[in-house]
Amino acid sequence: MGLWSKLTGKDKEHGDSSHDDKKKEDYSHLSSENKGKSSKAEQEYRPVYRPPGESSSAPPGYDAPPPGPPPPDNFYAPPSQLPPSFGLAGGSSHAPGYQDYAPPMGPPPGYVVYNVQIPPPAVPSRSKKYSQGLNASEDDAEAGHQYCRQNPVARPAYFPPETLDRISRGEIGLYMPGHFGGHLTPEGNRRFEIRSHKDTEDATLLSGLPLYSSLGHYPRDKAYKTIYYEIKIHKLHDDSSLAIGYTVVPTPPMRLPGWHRGGLAVHSDDGNRYINDPYGGKEFTRPFEEGETIGLGIRFRMGMAQAFLTRNGREAGHWMIDEPRDWEDTQRLNGDGNVTGLMGDNDLYAAIGVFGKVEFDVDFGYNEWQDSTIQH
Predict the structure, then answer these.
(1) Which stretches make up the SPRY domain (predicted)?
(2) So what's the pLDDT on residue 218?
């Protein structure tokens, strides 16, 4: 009698009395409701492991674990040597029927090779101990360090929308320190004319509002923000100096920008760039000349910041502000090249340094360079 007959009860219909008194078998464990469950009968016939010597109804070999210890971990050891025809260099001519082939002499047909070598990581350039141009005294440097120790950097300020609009138009003003030996003449809301005397000591002229507001200008909408302004040099004597830069506030008014914390600048007498560096700076460009228009900007994008310099409308060079620093520079007591405040984490003001007799104009108006982004 088949299973189908048992399930349908056809045995009773055909008068098979030999099975009338038998108990119906339970197949409920085969239903979808009991899926994954074991019937009582299945549980009774599962193999049961017992210690050796104890009787059981299980078939021989199922009532005890296999004799002996388990096989060792290194049961399948790797070959002791390379297979035939494989040498240490990736091939061998000893195998019959095989021949070594040299690598192809050129690219596959239809491919062009661009011999572009990836340069090794740049070696950090070390600041000069002294500038090849004019150098301030150590006493003046210490006075600047003392000023910074006594006057901590101001936190980013909140500027209302109308003030941010003024900044975007370049209406930020320009102020000279009290000891400045010269004259400042406004020429509209964005341009200023500066004339200094030959005995003018180091001084930094500072914008009244920042060109970059950390709270208002941090790149969000268009993923980048660029600040930029220019100076037009009319007269620049050999024993004079002019610096174009940016700085956090407050900054030592009796020093040039780039020499102290949160300051960045390029100096006219040596063409070097300075970031928190009261020594000789790093070589960057040639000295400025009379008649030139010099522009300095910073491009901010997604946590990066790149400074760039223009000469007469053309970019003359750029560098990443957080470039690797030379280890010896980082160990200096003052002016270790730290870039805190220059990476978009603080407000940045225009800072123009003057020493000796110079004549120049400053223009904070809109310039197409403000639409540029980081260059590689």
Answers:
(1) 224-368
(2) 78
